[in-house]
Amino acid sequence: VDPAAYPHLVDYSDHFSSLLEEEVLVKDEMAVERLRNWTNARLESEGILIRGLEAKHTHRILKEKIVRLQLPIETVRRNSTDAGGDKDGDVDGEEGDGQQVESRLVYRRPYLPFHQFSRGDAVTLTLGEQNPLDAMDRYEGVVHEKHPKYIDIAVMDLPPELWKKNRIPNKQQQQQDPDDQDPAERKLFRPADADTADTVEEDELGQDDDTQGQEDIDDNNNNNNRTVSWRLDMFENRVSHDRMITALAELTAPNVSDKMAPDLRDALVYSFIQTVIKHKMGVGEDASTDFYAVFRRGDDPAPWNEWFSQPANRWWYSAERLDAILDMAKRQGLVDQSQEEAVRRSLTQRVTLIQGPPGTGKTRTSCLLLGSIVALMKAAR
User: Fold this and answer.
1) Domain range spanning residue 52?
2) Less packed terminus of the chain by CB within 10 Å, N or C?
3) Which stretch of DSSP H or E encloses residue 304?
4) What is the DSSP code string of 153-166?
5) pTM for the structure as a whole
6) Low-confidence ranges of the chain (pLDDT < 50)
7) How far apart are CA 322 and CA 380, in angstroms?
């Protein structure tokens, strides 16, 4: 790395790393505040709490255990006719056209209620109805997969209630998971109270995703999961935070030639305002750990007010060169009129906000903006 670039890299990394960590702490505090002050009804209406769930240990991924959370199996009475007519009767008997109505009990796995859980969300699993902040035993995990009828979470520590109560299915059983099978091929099952039911049947056309396999019922009968319920609470999604930390580390690494164009890195890092101000004010390297102390010095005038009031020293900017860059992009079909205007304004204004609905080319415009900056700086050198 160029020795002259090292202070810029350090300042850039320290500044944005601290901001990202502060953002995570604030989001965690907000999650704790919700759990402390909001009612369960409000948490459920916001989609960040699901109660009354059954838990089952399904498999492992490396050192993490996958726990499947779903609602208990429910009984639904359905009516059908012996002639294949309407299925809308309410009671046994005859319809107006003389067809015999037959009533059946169907056992199915219900859909989960409205929620906002998505892959990568940090969650807590708690036994019963206790608030996670008050529970003696709570288990932290990450959403691994979601389905209309279940949510799989990855946990490092398996709850003791699931040690013996849930066996890990073998390969053949995993292949016969009813949620992964064709609905027409799913097997019939009989729950614990099937003896009291009129009948247990699968949807004749195989179009209803309500039935579950025999292994689910075995788990319910053997493990008494009907009497054990869990609650799932949402914290914050760390996926985007982890990606930003990784991107920041790669951007400020000494050698980025194999992952990022050095010219693009220079354009981003060398323009970092903290390094510019420190250089203009003569602040030494010893002040890098508490740079904001520079702004708190009340006995000195604020020179940056004068700097910011002056036109930017854009030694690399050339309107003629920018016209050539954008003309080439238009000939290649990479930019339209609104995107061209956004790039021009971004290079001539101190602050520019690029916004628009999905699919309007915000990412392409940003890439074109960065490419234009690099091309302009290369030409200026």
Assistant:
1) 26-79+107-237
2) C
3) helix 303-309
4) EEESS--GGGTTTS
5) 0.54
6) 83-92, 166-226, 285-289, 304
7) 12
